[in-house]
Every structure is written in C-alpha cells, then in structure tokens.
What does this fold into?
Amino acid sequence: MSHKTDMSSRKQRQDRDLDEALEESFPASDPPSHGGITGDSGSSGKPDQSSGA
It folds into this structure.
C-alpha cells in the first residue's frame, strides 16, 4: 500500500469516527470531545486572596 493510499484510508476512518461521535452526541449542546485537556491548568478556581484587601 502506498503512503498516499494509507493517508487516504486513515482520513476516511477519522471522518467515519467523527460522524459516529456526532450522531451519538446529538442533540447534546456540547460538541464531542476529541481528547486533550482544556482550561487553565494553573488556576485553582479560587479568587486570589494575596492582595490583603
């Protein structure tokens, strides 16, 4: 199998996987997650109390 054919079949597989995830999540308001972590990893979610106010 050539490199171009391999890339094409991989793209088709990714497209099918995405279509399936979209169908399974409908009609949810949030889009399907495709890995990775989002958000600010340095934030604890608490207000900064170091100002001494």
